[in-house]
Amino acid sequence: MRLLYHHPLLASARKVRLALHEKRLFFEEKISLPWEREEAILRLNPAGEMPVLVDEDGTTVFDPVTICEYLEEVYPEPALIRGTPAERAEARRLAAWFDHKFQREVIQHLVVEKLVKRAMANHAPDSRALKVGRDFLVTHLQYIGELTEQRGWVAGSALTLADLAAAANISLVDYCGDVPWESYPAAKEWYVRIKSRPSFRSLLRDVVPGIPPAPIYADLDF
Amino acid sequence: MRLLYHHPLLASARKVRLALHEKRLFFEEKISLPWEREEAILRLNPAGEMPVLVDEDGTTVFDPVTICEYLEEVYPEPALIRGTPAERAEARRLAAWFDHKFQREVIQHLVVEKLVKRAMANHAPDSRALKVGRDFLVTHLQYIGELTEQRGWVAGSALTLADLAAAANISLVDYCGDVPWESYPAAKEWYVRIKSRPSFRSLLRDVVPGIPPAPIYADLDF
Question: What is the pLDDT of residue B149?
Answer without folding.
Answer: 97
